[in-house]
Amino acid sequence: MKVGVLALQGDFDAHRRRLQELGASATLVRKPAQLDEVEALVIPGGESSTLLWHLEQHGFFHRLAEFVRARPTFGTCAGAILLASEVANPPQKSLGAMNISVERNAYGRQINSFIGGVHWTRGGDPLEAVFIRAPRITSVGEGVEVLASEGSHPVLVQQGHLMAATFHPELSADKRVHAAFLELIGP
Ligand code: GLN
To answer: Which domains does the chain have, with CATH numbers?
Structure first.
């Protein structure tokens, strides 16, 4: 099973390393045609508006929209914003693949970035979650399962073959989130 990491912008290399540490074969995806060579994809954090700009420059957007409809995909932070069906603050185009609404930069200026322990519904210790100018999932619709939350807010969700995190699991030592994605992909 080959897992791609979208490498147009943002924090892609830490994802590749983490996937490799967990025994997956991970490769960077920079061109639309490379999506044909992978069976699953991570869309990393960064700046979702910049990511969108790059996607639209290279005719990548529509190819990616098709991919995420069919294949396991994990969006983190800006990647989660891209997967959402509705984006606010400001409204922004997205892939509309997951039944979630998100608000960009929702934690305000004073706490742009922080590390928190979040409740993991699968039990065990709280997950160490690194939030960087993070979005907030403001609503979840049908078919969406909340896997982790911070206070009353979902921060890690799954809908069928899709997962989204508002934090950066590739930046903490905790490997459970990527392991859960690899489990979702299957053997
Ligand atoms: N603030 C970014 C955005 O709105 C997301 C931040 C991140 O990916 N760390 O796109």
So the answer is: 2-185 (3.40.50.880)
